[in-house]
Amino acid sequence: MEAMSATETTRTRLVMAGAFVGALVLLALSVLFSWPVTVTGASPSAADEAAAAFDSPPGTCLDWPADNPRAMRRLDCAQPHLFEVTSIVDISPDYGQSAPPPEEKQWQTIAEDKCTPGVTSYLGGKLDPFGKYGVSALKPTEEQWRSGDRKLRCGVHRVTPRGTRVATKGSAANADQSDISEPGTCFALADKDIGDPIDCGSQHAVEIVGNVDLSVAFTAGFPPPDDQKVKLSELCAVAAAEYSGGVNLAEKKLTVFWDPPLREESWAAGSRKVDCKVGSLLPDGSGLAPVAGSVRAAPAPTAPPPSTPGG
User: Fold this and answer.
1) Beta bridge partners of 84
2) Is the pLDDT of residue 202 over 70?
3) pTM higher than 0.90 for the full model?
């Protein structure tokens, strides 16, 4: 996050989503979680739907409820979803029938090596390593491994800087990879820094007030970071004023921030957009203070339709 000064939050680019039929294993931020997908009382149709979802072809989008990750299902990519399948990779040439399953840390390396080329191709030939999408994979369980399954279901997902999966809309294929959020999104306060998305009615760290496109100002190649900062300060001030309806942010002790300048790798991948946000700095400058409520301007009242004679 940038303002007059800022630090960039480290992002985790690879989070392994583990597989299924008996267990769905999620490796996130080097912490292992597991839970049964098929549980007592689950209907055959629900189990079949989850099994079919796990074996989906490339181009399929998958989702599961936050409170019931067992219920993996296919859905239209236009709907909010957590995972999009990009390719199916068979690693049996490297792991024969008698080979033991890789350790979890090995799985991360395998997924990164085997899935990244397919993900890059699926995204149109370019992958922004600091962009919206991270490489992920569904891997076989130990039971599947013993039965000879060596398929890695590669895909993309989006995670917050703190490693939480968040839903996206629309297919990732050939999509803009700029790491931006919808204006009106608020992020929780976590240790004086930005956390995960939260309702703006709750105390939060920052609120997204706009997405600005640097390609409008820079048309002749990758712009130096300092030049980006100057332009972002201008564009984000305008975005904040439009979003808030001209509210005096200083009176509310709010400051306009923006994400760090785009890196050259992001620019080469086609990313051009950056988030603008507002938040409140602690007096000692050590981080962010809690903010309550949105600064979004209320919509203008709609004029009633003209009355008609005798109406």
Assistant:
1) 61, 156
2) yes
3) no
Rounded Cα distance, 118 and 153, in Å: 11
pLDDT tens track for 28-72: 322 222 223 333 344 557 778 888 888 899 999 999 887 776 788
12 has a pLDDT exceeding 60: no
Distance CA 122, CA 57 (A): 13
pLDDT for the residue numbered 304: 64
Residue pair 166/186 in contact (Cβ under 8 Å)? The answer is: no
Contact (CB, 8 A) for 281 and 256:
no
Q: How far apart are CA 228 and CA 234, in angstroms?
A: 10
**Burial environment of residue 56 by CB neighbours within 10 A (0 to 12, 13 to 18, 19 or more):** buried
Contact 55, 90 (CB under 8 A): no
DSSP state of 238: H
Which one, of 251, 263, 270, 258, lies nearest residue 234 by Cα? 258
* Residue 5 dihedral angles phi and psi, to the nearest 5°: -155, 155
Residues 6+ apart with CB under 8 A from 30: 105
User: Mind listing the pLDDT tens digit for each residue in 108-143?
Assistant: 899 999 999 999 999 999 999 999 999 999 988 888
Residue 200 has what DSSP assignment?
T
Nearest to 263, CA basis, from 11, 19, 65: 11
Alpha-carbon distance of 249 to 164, in angstroms, equals 30
Averaged pLDDT, 192-200: 95
Beta strand ranges found along the chain (DSSP E): 16-17, 24-28, 31-35, 61-63, 73-75, 83-90, 134-138, 151-159, 165-166, 186-190, 193-198, 206-213, 255-258, 273-281, 288-289
Phi, psi dihedral angles at 33 (to 5 degrees): -125, 150
Give CA–CA dist 69/285, Å, rounded: 40
Residue 8 confidence (pLDDT): 34
Q: How far apart are CA 46 and CA 190, in angstroms?
A: 37
